[in-house]
Amino acid sequence: MTAKELIKILNTFPENHTFVVQGYECGYCDVHSVKSIKVTLNHNTESWNGPHEEREDSNTDVVFIQRTENPLSK
């Protein structure tokens, strides 16, 4: 995704929205998509998980920047 494409998408969200990304080990990935999701903040305590958990029954909306899976891992 280019900066121009990402900026266009990000401009569709309210300025005060929180942004989150997937938590996982090492390396970098391309951006797959950007979408609004509902999360429960500070739900997970395990070191390998990000602290927030996606939950439809939550009232906390965040913008999720999803990574592309590594095509070389297959």
Q: What does this molecule look like?
A:
There is one protein chain. The chain is mostly beta strands and 74 residues long. Helices cover 11% and strands 32% of the residues. The chain has one helix spanning 3-10, and strands at 18-21, 31-40, 53-54, 60-67. A four-stranded mixed beta sheet has the order 1-4-2-3. The longest helix is centred in the first third of the chain and has 8 residues, at 3-10. The chain is flat, with a radius of gyration of 14 Å. The two termini are 22 Å apart.
Topology overview:
Layout: H1 3-10, E1 18-21, E2 31-40, E3 53-54, E4 60-67
Parallel strand pairs: 1-4
Antiparallel strand pairs: 2-3, 2-4
Strand content: 25-35%
Number of DSSP helices? Answer: 1
The span between the termini is: 22 Å
Q: Strand order within the widest sheet?
A: 1-4-2-3
Helix share of residues?
10-25%
Give the class from helix and strand content and strand pairing. Answer: mainly beta
Morphology:
flat
N-to-C SSE string, H for helix and E for strand: HEEEE
Mean pLDDT: 86
User: What is the total tally of β strands?
Assistant: 4
Rg, Å, rounded: 14 Å
Unreliable residue stretches: none
Largest sheet: 4 strands, mixed
